[in-house]
Amino acid sequence: MQHVSSAIGAGKIRRASRFIQKDGRALLVAIDMQASSGSGPDLDVVERVAAGGPDGILASWQVARRYPEAFAKSGLVLRLDGALTQMGNYAAGDVFSVMYKAEQAAAIGADAVVIMAFPGADDEELSLRRLAALVAEAEMIGMPVIAESIPGTWAKTVPWDAEHISKAARICVEIGADAIKTMTPPDVADLSVVVENCEAPLFVLGGPKMETEAEAVQYAADVVAAGASGVAFGRNCWGAEDPTEMVRQLRQAVHGA
Question: Looking at residue 38, what is its pLDDT?
């Protein structure tokens, strides 16, 4: 079997290697939620982020289309779902929709795609079916899929503890996700429990803006020490006083000297 090869499998490996380095780790910067918030990062912040040398950037369609040069040396992870805004009241249930297809992501040059999943939510079947459909579509063209695994919902209808974060991540991987983006348990040391139950690379999201930039850098170092494959920071990176320098410090925290 050593001589059996797959063009599709090779494509997925090549794409993944654009944002996951040889040490198995990655610093990802998330610039992808302004499509729902209508605010957040400066319009050109992706250029300052890219100058710091992140391994990958999670981007909205417009960021990917408007600033192609920013992804010359960084992987592009395209956000495919959304179609909702934060301008009104939050819906009681899952109202996410898939906005773009995996083939469109490939056409714009994406190295991976990312989509939300809510294991444990009352209407969990909606997001899990979307994830399964995307996995099937992406598998046919060799496109890695990252599941942003949120136990229950953002309203924390399921506790965000080690047990539930671990189960949610495992469920997403079993459905077919190639990597996971999720939060840490209240005690970062318990992240090892989540990692041990997850066969795929696991990236920790940054969450709300931390009080100091030094705190964010230390947090990145702590989650990697606990076994995470890296971080996917948004406002804690692009919201820094100097995003370029912040990326450099986070790279060192994730990959070491």
Answer: 83
CB 243 within 8 A of CB 217: no
pLDDT band at 34 (very low <50, low <70, confident <90, very high): confident
* Cα gap 56→26, rounded to integer Å: 7
* Tokens found for residue 30: 């998330």
Which distant-in-sequence residues (6+ apart) come within 8 Å of 73 by Cβ?
50, 53
Question: Which residue carries 């006083």 as its tokens?
Answer: 241
b/e code 225-235 from CB counts within 10 Å (16+ = b): ebebbbbbbbb
Instruction: Read off the tokens for 11.
Output: 């494509």
Q: What is the DSSP string of 193-243?
A: HHHHT-SS-EEEE--SPPS-HHHHHHHHHHHHHTT-SEEEESHHHHTSSSH
What 3-state class would DSSP assign to 3?
A: coil
Q: Is 48 helix (H, G, I), strand (E, B) or coil?
A: helix
* d(C-alpha 144, C-alpha 203), whole Å: 14
Q: Identify the CATH number of the domain defined by range 7-255.
A: 3.20.20.70
Closest alpha carbon to 142 in 1, 236, 7, 27: 7
Among 201, 191, 129, smallest CA distance to 160 is for 191
Per-residue pLDDT averaged across 74-85, rounded? 91
Domain boundaries, the chain: 7-255
Coil, strand, or helix at residue 45? helix
CB 58 within 8 A of CB 112: no
More confident residue, 87 or 161: 161
231: nearest Cα among 213, 210, 255, 200: 255
